[in-house]
Amino acid sequence: MTSIAQELSGRAKAMLRAVAAGRGQLSGGREPDLYVDGLPCCDQMVTHDLVHAGLLRARRVVGLNERVDAELTDEGRAAIA
From what superkingdom does this record's organism come (predicted)? Predict the structure, then answer.
């Protein structure tokens, strides 16, 4: 298990699992917001941390007022394995 996986909170892991299940979308921008089942995720800071840590990303580049499906990186999948 990587050190980043050991540092993840239960909430962060749940967010990653939701994305792995195909339930997540990210908004565009440098600090994207996560939406799960169409609803905004309440912990924007964790979303930003997951994106900046390279565990979570948008499937394609989008504009500021757009959303796109989110996906896990290889590191993100390893973190919840």
Answer: Bacteria
Residue 61, token pair as written in the block: 């580049």
pLDDT score for 38: 95
**Amino acid occupying residue 12:** A
Q: Name the β-bridge partners of 40.
A: 35
Measured CA to CA in angstroms, residue 59 lies from 7, 20, 35 at distances of: 25, 12, 14
Nearest to 51 by CA among 81, 73, 35, 36: 73
Is 71 within 8 Å of 19 (Cβ atoms)?
A: yes
* Measured distance CA(80)–CA(65) in Å, rounded: 30
Tokens 């565009």 identify what position?
28
| Cβ–Cβ under 8 Å, residues 11 and 45 | no
